[in-house]
Design goal:
Distance between the termini: 114 Å
Radius of gyration: 39 Å
Largest sheet: 5 strands, mixed
Strand order of the largest sheet: 1-3-2-4-5
Number of strands: 14
Structural class: alpha+beta
Strand content: 15-25%
Shape: elongated
Length: about 500
């Protein structure tokens, strides 16, 4: 008996009986081109390499081919990773079924819905057999109606999400602002301020004169303020247009061009006032306005003050251009909210020292993420998407705090310094841990360090960003008290008519 011959024959018989693969594998552009040249209906399972083709539909595909399709129907599985015509499907995990006829796409179905795939398969086969026109006939590189619909939904969802996030951010900003405003209006309930124009301290030749030689100033501190207000602080300060514009916030007062010009023409005298114990029942802002302007409000822009009032009586010592020119002498806050704004601008140090404001959001738990320079592009995207949750950001020379210097406060700034890069730079992100989305986004791009806990994150953040509240302080430009200027021997001066020393700016 020829045993070897028997084995060979058996192998040949087994090979002949092995069924052909149900689906043709397609991995290249050349193989894909051959699929497009096939006749009949071709159903292609388009997939990405990392997720693989849909194996759960094999039994259905076999059933339809045997019962209905026959030679008119063929299948293929196409890995989109290296096929240019299918590049829009790369990286997606959802099963995608593309129906082809004569090299054109006639239908596209998403998902692993067995009954739906069965229905569409039979429907397209019937159309082909009867010669009925398909719903659409498109190049395989074009987006199907279903794809366009999905893109619209995704875009609408994205826009709605962005709008909701923006609305939330704006609501948080407004809530914080209102909380801050309520804090300061309450804290400053018995205080107010005024600003004397620079010309008040200029003589007939427009040269600077001693404040005790200024009639408007002397009347103010000797006659008007005593028994009404105590001068708690006074100093001279050069204003600019930005400061003036900010000063007018929270008021409906619009300063005229001439008034603004006069206010910027030299250093103003800024006075912080506390209402007298004898006048505690008075409205602190309106009462001062009445003293200065003869009515409890600022005169309308460009309109002369009431005749005979303090603001109307005083004119510059130098000769005005014409008798009709209006030379404002003083400005005061018209309401509590505006006063709170002015205090934060002009008397910032005083406010921060005596009435510090801490909003609840500043106590939100934080996490510190650290990345090496290879993550720059990923960080740029995440920072852009989660700006509102980023408490602080910095690029440092290396990870050796506190010696390591911060070299950039944004990715853009770092990219501009291309010639200075060493490859040892680190990127530090301090993130508010308020929801899983932002936390997972920052964690998902591969930090080499994540804070063990919010408590440790506070200490870590302080090393890289040592200023209180993780925000760098802007130095104050408040100037020292005039008494220092005008008493070179260093003698302490008192505010005339008050008996209280005039405080220097903090």
């Amino acid at each position: 008996m020829d045993i070897l011959g028997g084995i060979s024959a058996a192998r040949r018989m087994a090979k002949k009986s092995t069924p052909a693969a149900l689906q043709t594998e397609v991995n290249t552009d050349d193989e894909w081109k051959k699929i497009l040249e096939r006749k009949g209906l071709v159903v292609v399972d388009v997939y990405s390499g990392w997720s693989g083709p849909c194996a759960g539909m094999i039994s259905l595909l076999k059933k339809v081919k045997m019962e209905t399709g026959g030679d008119l129907l063929s299948y293929a599985i196409a890995k989109s990773d290296d096929i240019k015509d299918l590049e829009r499907f790369r990286g997606k995990s959802e099963p995608t079924w593309m129906f082809l006829h004569d090299g054109k796409m006639i239908n596209l179905l998403f998902g692993a819905d067995c009954p739906e795939l069965h229905r569409v398969l039979n429907e397209e086969l019937q159309r082909l057999q009867t010669g009925e026109q398909p719903n659409f006939l498109m190049e395989v590189t074009e987006r199907s109606p279903e794809e366009e619909k999905r893109l619209r939904i995704l875009e609408e969802t994205r826009l709605a999400k962005e709008a909701a996030k923006k609305a939330q951010e704006e609501a948080e900003i407004k809530a914080k602002y209102e909380a801050e405003m309520n804090h300061f209006t309450s804290s400053l309930a018995k205080e107010t301020c005024l600003i004397l124009y620079p010309w008040v301290f200029k003589d007939e030749e427009f040269h600077r004169r001693d404040k005790k030689s200024s009639p408007p100033y002397m009347e103010l501190i000797e006659e008007l303020l005593p028994d009404n207000y105590k001068i708690a602080e006074e100093f001279r300060k050069q204003l600019d247009e930005t400061i003036v514009n900010d000063m007018l916030k929270e008021s409906d007062y619009e300063m005229t061009e001439n008034s603004t010009k006069l206010l910027l023409d030299g250093k103003c005298m800024c006075m912080r006032l506390k209402i007298s114990e004898k006048k505690l029942e008075m409205d602190v802002e309106k009462y001062l306005l009445n003293i200065l302007f003869g009515e409890p409000s600022l005169p309308k822009p460009g309109q002369p003050p009431i005749e005979g009032c303090y603001a109307e009586r005083h004119k510059p010592a130098f000769t005005p251009n014409s008798k009709d020119d209006i030379y404002p002498v003083v400005w005061a806050a018209p309401n509590p909210r505006n006063k709170a704004t002015v205090f934060q601008i002009i008397f910032r140090n005083y406010v921060e020292k005596n009435y510090p404001f801490e909003h609840e959001t500043s106590r939100v738990p934080i996490i510190v993420f650290k990345y090496d320079s290879t993550k720059k592009n990923d960080i740029k995207i995440i920072v852009s998407n989660y700006k509102s949750d980023l408490m602080n950001f910095g690029v440092f020379e290396r990870d050796k705090p506190p010696e390591a210097k911060r070299i950039a406060t944004s990715i853009e700034e770092f990219e501009e310094k291309a010639e200075e890069r060493t490859g040892y730079e680190i990127f530090v992100c301090v993130v508010r841990k308020i929801d899983s989305e932002s936390f997972l986004a920052f964690a998902g791009i591969g930090p080499y360090h994540v804070s063990e806990s919010p408590e440790k994150a506070i200490d870590e953040a302080a090393v890289y960003f040592p200023a209180p509240g993780l925000v760098e302080e802007v130095p104050s430009d408040d100037e020292e008290n005039l008494e220092t200027e005008e008493n070179p021997e260093g003698q302490n001066g008192n505010a005339a008519g008050t008996g209280e020393p005039v405080a220097t700016a903090l």
